[in-house]
Amino acid sequence: MSARRGGQGGMALIVGLILLALMTVMAITGFNIGRTSLDIVGNMQARQEVIAAANSAIQEAISTTRLFEVPEAVFLNNSCKGNGNTRCFDTNGDGTDDVTVVLDPQPVCVSAQIIPNASLKVDNDASAAGCATGVAQTFGVEGTATGSSLCANSIWEIVAVATDDITQAEVVVTQGAAVRVSTDEVGTHCP
Questions:
Q1: 145 neighbors 136 (Cβ within 8 angstroms)
Q2: 54 SS3 class
Q3: How does pLDDT run along the chain (191 residues), one tens digit per residue?
Q4: Cβ atoms of residues 68 and 154 within 8 Å
Q5: Which of 116, 135, 52, 36 shows the shortest CA–CA distance to 89?
């Protein structure tokens, strides 16, 4: 007759293998969760850099008179890739452009309203003095004196499409801007 060795019959080996398999699965899951979190953080950083580049391009467009004079080529000196409405940014400082921002469609004047002479505050605002016109003599001719100034308040819509050249993260930023323009510009670019 054979004697039993403590009644285990190989159970310790099976339980040990099951525990080892569970620990391996937990380690792999922990590694995957950590890697996924790192990917999420990297993607959010790339997205924020692209948004910052788009906002920078919009601010640059708003700060130049080319916005309402030549809306099809706003970035004259800082254009890249041969397009006057494209601006490139080096976000990591390595000397290579990382983000490309395109004003697409080109900036458009949504609305404009000619400023009446009576509403200009010439005493408080030096730029308003350039808008004021003298009162013309009408000599009884109807429709000759309009009371309008030489300036208009216009509202422009600027859409910037920014793309990270490395990660291909893309963001579309739309911003409206109120700009005081001459009445000549209103006739050219505004409805």
A1: yes
A2: helix
A3: 555 555 666 888 889 999 999 999 999 999 999 999 988 888 888 888 899 999 999 999 998 888 888 888 888 766 577 778 898 888 888 888 889 999 988 898 888 888 887 777 656 665 666 676 655 555 555 544 556 777 888 899 999 999 988 888 899 999 998 888 887 777 777 76
A4: yes
A5: 52
52: amino acid identity, one letter: A
- Whose structure tokens read 């458009």? 108
Which tokens in the block code for residue 121?
A: 């505050």
- Coil, strand or helix at 153: strand
CA nearest to 52, candidates 143, 182, 183, 162? 162
Which DSSP letter does residue 7 get? T
The structure's pTM equals: 0.70
Burial 106-121 (b: 16+ CB within 10 A, else e): bbebeebebbebeebe
Residues near 105 by Cβ (< 8 Å), separated by ≥ 6?
159
> Nearest Cα to 85, choosing from 50, 61, 51?
61
Q: For residue 170, which of 61, 47, 53 has the smallest C-alpha distance?
A: 47
Asked if residue 160 lies in contact with residue 101, where contact means CB atoms within 8 angstroms, the answer is yes
Q: 157 with 174: CB under 8 angstroms?
A: yes
